[in-house]
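dumping this here before i forget
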Amino acid sequence: MPASDSPLLVVGLGNPGPKYAGTRHNIGHLVLDELAGRADPMPASFSAHRRSNAEIARIRRRLPDGGERALILAKPRSYMNLSGGPVAALARFFKIDPAGIIVVHDELDLDPGVVRLKRGGGEGGHNGLRSTSKALGTRDYLRVRVGIGRPPGRMDPADYVLREPPAREREEFALAVAEAADAVEALVDLGLTGAQNRVHGR
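structure:
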């Protein structure tokens, strides 16, 4: 991860508009809303970034060593399969290398509510990750993988991710959003290995 005086770009993947706002595929957006709401001394708000097709909020996080880290929270306004364009544009504008990018996304291959951290690796059929890797020219960025589980029965995964969780699962879904926000903060504070030890040990 870059030196603590360099900003980090935290990207939440999702689809734009109220139709998709509470769906499983938009958990990345929801995690960024949670992080913006936690900003100290007051919540941060998102606004359109004119040089990219994204909404951003800027916050500063106090580090365990007493320093601070600037975070740029970004929600691409493109559809999921075109996420890479806004991510790459933001990285260029703010001069942030892929090592300083954290992407938060839903993960079918993890049970609901499970949060896992990694750098690089494959995209697992996730169109937002595939687009991001292509636009950045590398897979070597940090991932916060938020489990949503596999669809029941023979439901098409595409239909499953674009639905809101049923009422009986919404408390667990909200908890996963909060825990993923905790994981982002751990990455900022501790780096990948320290954050993995904290988050994966839960």
